[in-house]
Amino acid sequence: MIIKVCGLTDNQSSMQVANLNGVDYTGFIFYEGSKRFTETTLATAKQKVGVFVNASLQYIKEQVIKYNLDVVQLHGNESPEFIRQFPKNIKIIKAFGIATEADLEATQLYEGLADYFLFDTKSESHGGTGTTFNWQILDAYKGSTPFLLSGGIGLESIEKLKQFTHPQLAGYDLNSRFELSPKVKDPDRIATFIKLLNMKTTSYLDTDPLGFYGEFGGAYVPELLRPNVEELDAAFNSYCFTEEFESEFKQLLKDYVGRPTPLYLAGRLSDKYGATIYLKREDLCHTGAHKVNNTVGQILLAKHMGKTNIIAETGAGQHGVATATVCALMGLNCIVYMGEKDIERQAPNVQRMKMLGAEVRPATSGSKTLKDATNEAIRHWINHPDSYYLIGSVVGPHPYPKIVAYFQSVISKEIEKQLLEKTGKTYPDKVIACVGGGSNAAGAFYQFYDNPKVELVAVEAAGLGIDSGKSAATSVLGTPGVLHGSLTLLMQDADGQVTEPHSISAGLDYPGIGPLHAHTIATGRAVSISVTDDEALQAALELSQLEGIIPALESAHALYALTKLELKKEDVIVVNLSGRGDKDMNTYLEKFPNL
Amino acid sequence: MNPFKKDKKQVSIFVTAGYPKLDSLKGQLLQLQKQGVDFIEVGIPFSDPMADGPVIQETSSIALENGMKLGLLLDQLDALRNEVHIPLVLMGYLNPVLQFGLDAFLSRCQALSIASLILPDLSVELYETKYKEVFGKYKIPVTFLITPLTPNERVQRVAQVCQNSFVYLVGQNSITGQGYAINEGLSSRYAELKKLCGATPLFLGFGIDSKEKKEQAFKSVDGVIIGTAYLKAVKVEEEVKFVEGLL
């Protein structure tokens, strides 16, 4: 699509606009009646368009020579005869004001005389109204001259522009909606417009420039946090794909975390469910869960950004421990926010964090659990913008979901390699993972999102049952809403107040899910299954006694999905065993008193 | 015409709707109007107010416990329509508004002649690409926040989008209700920001708690917004005296 930016003058903002990639035509208005009247142009290599309204041929020709204009746009009542007098090597754009279908009739007389037509909102003032017209009228345009669409196009028009198609539509004319004041263009807005226009979501993992996966995601943060998220995004993009980062990250994952984790063929489990079942043993990671993959990645990023104070939120304490661990490793200060209630419930993890040198700060507001710990961490980040906020799941404002998913992608990258060795294929038929916020699932699904042969199964905690009022099955019970900086599926009441979820597993009782999961579940790319507290307990016991592996309660939810899925004998299944069960021994002890 | 003035220094008070009692709003608005406050921000309580300090958090949770809901808030304002003549601004996080339904909410705001909306977790980018059309349909201007660190070009962009309301300057990088001194560096930056805002009024909020600070702020901006300090006074039933001392 051609992008023409009109109403430029000889100033700095115009120059920035002319230099933008994707801007094809720069327009200068040689019409005194316009607020953007200029009698000069810019030294730009882009095609220069002079806009004239009922000017004399002599005047136009003079300006063409003086300013080296490539195109003449005629925006008045210039007749076909008038246009015939122009030398053939000057490109012509003839503008028409459109209010009804009848306005299109005039174009017939100009067929063959103009390189482009320009359809603008009809007005007495020859354009510059800043309002759009009803583009559907153009369905009646059957001419052979391609046209540019003009009049009031702004950032808010993007969705509609993408929906409006016409065989002769050649491009867009941008003007007043991209200005800080008449004659002062806003290069940022124009760059955003071009980016959004060219966005094609080719992968489930791609976000648009505003950080949306489909309709979910974004950065819904107060202005106070804007510099922080922008700094983070820039640092991630410029550093985390360098050789320096990758070699250090890989080294730590290998020597410190203990990767690659095994892909274990669970023979007795396979026999029981009648399929080939592999367990991806994230429970064997240092600290006992996949969480550390992400904290290792982010701590390297934080160090690179020169940050010395790290903050984190934690629910059950797993992410808190993984953060405290890498802070100890790097010698950085660590503050972990944890709900007051969770501090009571998860005493051993609190002790571990303290032993690792972290400060655990209780979140005493609201429901005093994970979501409130997250609020407190965000407030801390607002007050201390020099600190690094190390989020533990694929939640929060863009770019966090992208960053955390990327650092966890090591899980599925290993699965591909390991499966190839074991089965001769790089992908399984199904991948099953539990979802609270969804970081282990994002990591286990990552390489398979764009392979439709792989079924992705996201397992949520149903708590006491979907309809019990004590559940955390966000994709079933949730509706779109904004929490902690992103638009996602959210457990909330009819008034938009966030409700407190319930699950026996502290790692799954978050009221939202990551926007990537919301997007893939909403579009049908991933299926969600809900598993109750009791079912998870049953699966934990089963795995312990069939395979000699005591799983974390979170991972036990994923295991129970085997019961709920229809499996075929030839199916190759990977269950992501995200964590080990030591931390849940108190619950197991209480629930299985008579073993 | 912009209901927010630039030619006379403005004082605005932030009230959490439904605090301390479910029906406190009426008395508060009428009293503030009587005392000569220029406009009032009515806070929509939310369960997870991430940019707010402990005082506003607490008022928010108490209001929710009292049973305050967005629909009720709008009903309460509706009942006051003929009695409140100063501009009203609604301020709240986006989620309750989205759940109420953006169209339904804006249409009620229009009927109530709400002068502007402040939605701190809605950025100017998101507004312009995703929400502008529906706000435009109901002609409700949105007010955006800036901070002393906001780049100049962005300040101009915000000022332009807010030309029918005002720009809300968060005095320092912190959540609501954190005290700080307006030193020379800050006040000269405020003055610079005011210049960048052009014809759009620039009001300073977050952390203004005294007459002295208000007077100091008046030297560089067009007005002040006071929330936490007022709500602290409400808690001890001293708000009338507080506002008297402030004006």
UniProtKB/TrEMBL annotation, chain B:
GO terms for cellular component: cytosol. Coiled coil: none annotated. The keyword Lyase applies. Its EC number is 4.2.1.20. Belongs to the TrpA family. This is Tryptophan synthase alpha chain. The gene is trpA. InterPro entries: Aldolase_TIM, RibuloseP-bd_barrel, Trp_synthase_alpha_AS, Trp_synthase_suA. Keywords: Amino-acid biosynthesis, Aromatic amino acid biosynthesis, Lyase, Tryptophan biosynthesis.
